[in-house]
Amino acid sequence: MKTPDSNYNLLAGLFTAMLLATGTTAWSAEASVALKDVFKEHFLVGTAVNRSMVTGSAGFRRTAEQSAKDVALLKQQFNQITAENDTKWQHIHPREGADGYEFGPTDALVSFGLSNNMQVVGHTLVWHSQTPNWVFAGTNPPPPSATNAAPVAAANTNAPGTNRFGRGGFGGGFGRYTGPRASRDELLRRMRDHIHTVVGRYKGRIKVWDVVNEALADGPGTNILRNSLWLEIIGPDFIAKAFQYAHEADPAAILRYNDYGLENPAKRKKLITLIKSLQQQKVPVQAIGSQAHVNVLTSFETMDKALTEIATLGLPIHITELDVNSAAGGQRGFGADISANPSATQGGLVSDADKKLADAYVGIFRAFLKHRDSVKVVTFWGANDANSWRANGKPLLFDGNSQPKPAFDAVIAEAKKASAAD
Length: 422
What we know:
Layout: H1 5-22, H2 24-28, H3 35-38, E1 44-49, H4 51-55, H5 64-77, E2 80-83, H6 89-92, H7 104-115, E3 119-127, H8 133-136, E4 137-140, H9 144-147, H10 184-201, E5 206-213, H11 229-233, H12 238-249, E6 254-259, H13 265-280, E7 287-290, E8 293-295, H14 300-311, E9 317-325, H15 341-344, H16 353-370, E10 375-380, H17 406-421
Parallel strand pairs: 1-2, 1-10, 2-3, 3-5, 5-6, 6-7, 7-9, 8-9, 9-10
Helix pairs in contact: 1-16, 1-17, 10-12, 14-16, 16-17
């Protein structure tokens, strides 16, 4: 028998309060419980991984001992992994031509995943950011608006704990490319060659691809698509072409469209408009990736409404980059732009951060479980706080020492309640 919502919320709140009141001793005992096990009847539970985690080497500002703990946590808790950087164009194909690929890190990712019985996800094939300048370069003069635009500063690629190096830039740390441009046919050929090569190399081993990432426009305006070089040079069919090429390279792979801010009704409306248009064209979009970079004010009702509306598309929903920002500066929205990250993680943590984080995760996972017929994957954007792009916001279930936080126990309890109610 299912508990009425009012009693359910009361019990969840009391449980979280008990965890917080009893302190570290009470919840550290839960470390032997694995997320991948308690949710195994519902959905895969994954995490983004960095290069050091899959190669066994010490990471940036992580000692060998800390890296070993990261890897142990990864193996214990998760059954799916996503490359946080190494399958992005800038990293896997930094130079033009057939000899311009760097497959080593992704080979290591795939080997690690398969040897540990984890589903491997590739992120991402076509994106407005972290794409080298050579991809867009050619002999066609750019429009005046492009040559007069101020370059967008790229993020420090040596920064710790960030998966979004250079978000908003176009590779090389030089900002948006403003030089002579490739033609539509040249850029389509480069896209096709890149996708066929990368997806083809890992055919049957990387099971899921984020084919197009963050193509939707932000803000309340009427524009559906973000103004990117892909859109400017190719036109709006760049999305359909990318999915076509990926499907040609691996017909069995699950192909996702991935974006952030889908908890926002206006952004979600744009998503639904875009995907319905692609479906009418028979474009092989096979899953929706909702990044879910949210904050501690996010409620069950917010996530429930988002999932309800996305599910009307009739496609599996993958939660692809989940984290819950606890920083005081990050409570105003659901953005995921690296340029805004300093302000989104400033001001210290909100008051009573552990309890608010646990309460938020309870509501979020309650929504995931309610929609378990649609939600097939839940992936965290980092295994622990130290490896998070929003490390100052302490947004994950494990702290920087890979120890479970009260939010972890709250999520485990939510899974057990759902199993008992089934």
